[in-house]
Design a protein that fits this description.
The complex is a heterodimer of chains A (480) and B (476). Chain A has 15 helices and eleven strands. An eleven-stranded mixed sheet of chain A has the order 1-3-2-4-6-5-10-11-9-7-8, sandwiched between helices. In chain B, helix 7 runs antiparallel to helix 8, helix 12 packs across helix 14 and helix 12 packs across helix 15. Classes of the chains: A alpha/beta (480), B alpha+beta (476).
Chain lengths: 480, 476
């Protein structure tokens, strides 16, 4: 049995049935990491000894009948902006180079309760700010589909680890597309749930009103199982929502008959790579052939999503990142006096993209500009939500690309931040409206780089997405 | 001819709320823990931690708002006030700017010209900061986050006050309302109530306000009164000299009776306020508001009226007792245990006030229980102890809240009711003091006082002075 080719659910089943063990699975993953990590650099921290001892412990609990769930014994990688008790959590920043949290994120605890076994912490764009994983202070991550290309970002380490077999599944965070876009670039499944579905407690905040934790996996089935495990109402997070409908696996149904799918013309305009366009429209056609009602419509306001997003996310980030000051934890620069210490610590501790967003955010919140920028952006956000509400009056899902292109080459993106920001055009409106979105692989371009299909659902309608994505995945596998 | 000036004063009053836990986490608000012992990831600003509003804070804030005639904001939010300082672990304070919980209220104060309404601009909820401690020995500064996240309300008045007397009357009024609500103990000295004074002067009759300054570090009513006088004269001197008043924040040094500028408007920080995305907006329903309203206690004015009718106490007693919610509570509880109201009042008015004054304590610091006070009153009323002994016992009770019955028993302080023993002692005293006996018989009535004293001394105070007097007259 080639363990590393299994999905998380397949591995979990094999472990429960005694065909393999949690320890064997972890050893296989660690061997793959050993083999590939020097090239891909998916991880910031690999907790080798801890992972093996946790796997042994979980195996005992499986054998004792204490752990019976589908993820028991399955090795998982966690994005490095999710706190893990006793394990370095850097957010890919120098400013947290030595930060070891005293508590674990609620989503991580939920996975531990399900018996998943933590391998280590994955690379990412610094504080989740970036679309390529190149803003990390710990080196770039390479795309396993072609190591000369980026894996996307900011959850690039998580997506690449899933794609390369350096884990069986991973958690990422998505503020403006940070799960869906790297999933698209690496050819894996990635999902951003409805805002409030997964507790943000223990997620180091970037844009608090937009951040949401979600799974990166090899299959839609895995994605549904993981989401079911991590979704929970958490009293420690005031924005956490109490939901009764988190039995996401019940939507793993291969049937889209009568499902209404809207294709926004706005998502197929200028800037979209023709190969991506063709692959996505072909996926739509396949769903149509199998009974879905597919039609085009105008979503509108798409052009306003990027400025609104970068205003709101940067504003929140500028405040969220104030706590990194060299006083309590993390990196501290030597300096004379408090003021100089603050300045030097933050100048040396943050990378250029983080500084750019802190400055942008501080500017839009400053007295005299607050109304013109921040409040206006909030109004745009409300209008975008309105446009989606209208669309979901007609459709179960909205279908489009996750990104305008396939993965760019390493080093191409950072020199032109505006261009990089524009690459988020198809994902960020979802965060502004708090909606769920999923990305599933739908082909490759001529260079062999993966293309992702994005499905967007109404708030709390993840099941529509899972059903459509699962059906598409099965049809594609069947070669239809 | 010298110009006449009018002082215009508005106050920003911070009140620490009496909740058991902090505003955004479950840590204790208790005083006196070792540094950073009442902390968690939330109140120390750890990455990934999130605030959750303590509902009790909202209850207190709404209760104070209702009691001060405010309109309650039915959809209110928290905002972040961003500034860097080590006592502020997140480098932003969670406060309320755009939609504070209470607005447009007033309280009434008594002035020599009659009742006057002082407007309340707003009341908002916020978190307190930690404390910096400078270690001279190591030459470093340490931070204690035990106070970080302790809930506060800030009550911002309109610029409606015109003198130090009005300011004190307003603060007293606020203090009583808040104490009666049980929302805070409001101790200025200990910092659970803090007032910043915004003051400007203008020529009498002028319509426009002058340039104001804000005065900080005022921790007693006396300091506030002195600071107002000092700032008023400073501003008038400037104006008389043709110099402008600078809008600035000043710090009062009460020992030197002077203030100095901390920062001017020019270097005022831009706090970049914006709604805190981690906290859901608070919606207040009619039912919630009604529930808080129905729990409003009897406030001082009503209580004073009731004391007069129900207990027939003198106005002065009522004034003093209702001046502290705690004292009023002790009074009522003791009366409820069966003690006669005037007797209870006497203990509070005389001995309690004397001891509080001697020890520099507030009525809020009273520790003895109504049960023990009632027992002590019983002991005196039943003549089991005399008034001198009672005062001694009370003093011990005031310190340690002892049970007076047990104490009197243990120390053997009960009056000797054995007539024979008393008669023998009186006979001995008469025999030992022939001169006084002679004086008395010669018509010097006062001499009997000395003999009573001698008898009491011989009885170690445990005799009823009335009986001693009677026996002496009988035997002489």
């Amino acid at each position: 049995m080639e363990l590393l080719s299994l999905s998380a659910v397949e591995l979990g089943t094999a472990i429960r049935e005694g065909r393999t063990t949690a320890v064997e699975a972890m050893e296989a993953v660690l061997a793959r990491i050993e083999e590939k990590e020097s090239l891909y650099n998916c991880y910031i921290t690999v907790d080798r000894d801890g992972a093996l001892s946790r796997a042994a412990d979980v195996q005992r609990r499986i054998e004792a009948g204490e752990l019976t769930g589908p993820l028991a014994g399955v090795p998982v990688a966690i994005k490095d902006n999710l706190c893990t008790e006793g394990l370095l959590t850097t957010c890919a920043s120098k400013i947290l180079e030595n930060y070891v949290p005293t508590f674990s994120a609620e989503a991580v605890l939920n996975l531990e309760r399900a018996g998943a076994v933590l391998i280590g912490k994955t690379n990412m764009d610094e504080f989740a700010m970036g679309s390529t994983t190149e803003t990390s202070a710990y080196g770039v991550t390479r795309n396993p589909a072609d190591p000369e290309h980026v894996p996307g970002g900011s959850s690039g380490g998580s997506a690449a680890a899933v794609a390369s077999g350096e884990c069986f599944f991973a958690l990422g965070s998505d503020t403006g597309g940070s799960i869906r876009q790297p999933a698209s670039f690496c050819g894996v499944v990635g999902m951003k749930p409805t805002y409030g579905t997964v507790s943000r407690y223990g997620l180091v905040a970037y844009g608090s009103s937009l951040d949401q934790i979600g799974p990166l996996s090899r299959t839609v089935e895995d994605c549904a199982v993981i989401l079911e495990a991590i979704a929970s109402h958490d009293v420690k997070d005031s924005t956490s929502v109490e939901r009764q409908d988190t039995d996401f696996t019940s939507a793993l149904v291969r049937d889209v008959k009568g499902m209404r799918i809207g294709i926004p013309r706005d998502y197929f305009g200028e800037g979209l790579d023709p190969e991506v366009r063709a692959a996505v429209l072909q996926a739509a056609e396949l769903l149509k052939e199998n009974g879905a009602v597919v039609e085009e419509f105008d979503l509108s306001l798409v052009d306003y999503a990027i400025p609104a997003y970068y205003t709101i996310a940067a504003a929140e980030a500028s405040s969220n990142l104030e706590r990194f000051d060299g006083i309590k934890y993390g990196y501290r620069a030597e300096a004379e006096g408090l003021h100089q210490m603050y300045k030097k610590t933050r100048s040396q501790g943050f990378g250029p993209e983080v500084k750019r967003r802190i400055m942008l955010g501080s500017f839009v919140l400053s007295s005299g500009y607050y109304d013109a920028y921040y409040l206006k952006a909030l109004r745009v956000k409300a209008m975008i939500k309105g446009a989606f509400d209208e669309a979901f009056g007609k459709y179960n899902c909205i279908l489009g690309p996750a990104a305008p292109t396939t993965a760019p080459r390493l080093g191409e993106s950072l020199s032109d931040p505006i261009k990089m920001y524009l690459g988020d055009i198809y994902t960020i409106a979802v965060n502004l409206a708090g909606l769920p979105g999923i990305c599933v692989p739908c082909g490759t371009d001529k260079k062999g780089l993966p293309i992702g299909l994005q499905l967007i659902g109404d708030c709390f309608r993840e099941k529509d997405l899972i059903r459509a994505a699962y059906t598409y995945e099965q049809l594609r596998k069947e070669g239809k | 001819m010298a110009k006449e000036y009018e002082t215009v004063i508005g106050l920003e009053v911070h009140v620490e709320l009496a909740t058991r836990t902090k505003i955004f986490c479950g840590c204790s608000t208790a005083f006196g823990g070792s540094p950073n012992s009442h902390t968690c990831p939330v109140c120390t600003g750890m990455p990934g931690s999130l605030p959750v509003l303590n509902r009790k804070v909202l209850e207190h804030a709404v209760a104070v708002g209702l009691a001060t005639n405010c309109s309650i904001t039915r959809y209110c939010k928290f905002d972040r006030k961003n500034y860097f300082y080590p006592d502020n672990p997140q480098n932003y304070q969670i406060s309320q700017l755009y939609l504070p919980i209470c607005r447009d209220g007033w309280v009434e104060i008594d002035t020599p010209e009659g009742a006057k309404k002082i407007g309340i601009h707003e009341i908002h909820m916020e978190e307190d900061a930690g404390k910096l401690i400078h270690d001279e020995w190591e030459d470093c500064t340490l931070v204690d986050y035990n106070r970080s996240g302790v809930p506060l309300i800030e009550i911002v008045s309109e610029p409606d006050m015109r003198s130090a007397e009005e300011v004190i009357a307003y603060l007293e009024k606020l203090r009583l309302i808040i104490q009666y609500l049980g929302a805070s103990d409001c101790k200025l000295q200990e910092g659970s109530m803090r007032a910043d004074v915004n003051l400007s002067v203008r020529e009498k009759g002028a319509a426009a306000f002058g340039t104001r300054t804000e005065m900080k570090n005022l921790n007693s009513f006396r300091a506030i009164a002195r600071a107002i006088e000092g700032e008023r004269s400073r501003q008038i001197d400037l104006l008389e000299a043709g110099e402008p008043v600078v809008q600035e924040t000043r710090r009062w040094d009460d020992a030197k009776e002077t203030s100095y500028a901390m920062r001017s408007k020019e270097d005022a920080q831009d706090y970049r306020y914006f709604p805190d995305p981690d906290l859901a907006p608070v919606s207040i329903s009619d039912e919630y508001l009604e529930e808080i309203r129905s729990r409003q206690p009897e406030f001082r004015t009503e209580k004073m009226k009731r004391y007069k009718e129900e207990f027939e106490l003198p106005d002065y007693d009522i004034e003093i007792i209702t001046g502290s919610k705690h004292m009023a509570d002790i009074f009522e509880a003791t009366v409820a245990l069966g003690s006669q109201p005037k007797k209870v009042s006497n203990w509070l008015m005389v001995e309690t006030l004397r001891l509080l004054k001697e020890r520099g304590m507030d009525p809020e610091d009273i520790r003895f229980s109504p049960e023990n006070l009632a027992k002590l009153i019983d002991l005196t009323e039943s003549r089991a102890i005399n008034s001198t002994v009672a005062k001694e016992v009370f003093e011990v009770m005031f310190e340690e809240d002892i049970d007076p019955e047990e104490y009197v028993e243990k120390k053997g302080l009960k009056m000797v009711s054995d007539e024979g023993a008393l008669r023998r002692t009186v006979e001995e005293v008469i025999a030992a003091n022939p001169q006084s006996v002679q004086d008395y018989r010669n018509g010097k009535e006062k001499a009997i006082g000395f003999l009573v004293g001698q008898t009491m001394k011989a009885m170690k105070g445990k005799a009823d002075p009335g009986s001693v007097n009677r026996l002496l007259k009988e035997l002489l």
